[in-house]
Request: fold
Amino acid sequence: MIRTMPLEIVPADVSDLHQVLENHARYWGERDLRALHQPVLVREFGATCLIARAEDGIRGYVIGFVTPDHTGYVHLIATRDDTRGTGLGRRLYTEFTDAARGQGAVRLKAITSVGNKGSIAFHRSLGFDARVEEDYDGPGRPMVVFTREL
Reply:
């Protein structure tokens, strides 16, 4: 557990994304998700791409955007390995939800792999409905799709 220090959640910029990628394993462990961290998402949807920053660096982040059909889509959300279980993920989701609502979102959506039990449990604890959608990510590549009305 880390000691308590001031934490701010603010819109991300590309330099924040670079910091996250330098410490990728602290957020994602062995999974290599660097290719999903697209700078264009931060550049074009900056108001809904948020970082949680403290004196000791970026503790967590969410990259998301609002679609034309008013869906707040969470592309990535992660907390640093030493901040898990502190409620930071929930706080990031709350801040994203507020930002997405401000842009007209009426629902939230996220996806994960069928084997990602931690993500499934986390999203269900936030009140998301979860369903497996076959071929979501291509033929033979099912994903769990999370949705929640706002």
